[in-house]
Specification:
- Helix content is 56%, strand content 0%.
- The protein is built from five helices and no strands.
- It has helices at residues 4-11, 14-24, 28-35, 43-53, 64-68.
- α2 packs across α4.
- The longest helix is centred in the first third of the chain and has 11 residues, at 14-24.
Length: 77
């Protein structure tokens, strides 16, 4: 999978996704933008997401480097 946050999202429950947003101090909508490769996380946001994903057991955490250097979707003309 090209985006590790999308992998995490698909493994998590809706409640976990909402909790991740709260722990990362952002919205689920913004996490979706990152997960679906429409936006790239800033280094600060990527670190917050990594730390937050480590608080959940049973789901492998997301690494900040993967988020910062993610390849974005190409925009339609």
């Amino acid at each position: 999978m090209s985006n590790d946050l999308l992998r995490w999202r698909q493994s998590a429950s809706k409640a976990d996704w909402k909790s991740l947003a709260q722990l990362s101090r952002t919205s689920t909508g913004y996490l979706d933008q990152i997960a679906y490769s429409n936006r790239r996380a800033s280094p600060d946001m990527a670190e917050r997401i990594e730390k937050a994903t480590r608080k959940f057991s049973g789901i492998e955490p997301v690494l900040k480097e993967v988020l910062v250097f993610a390849v974005l979707k190409e925009k339609a003309a």
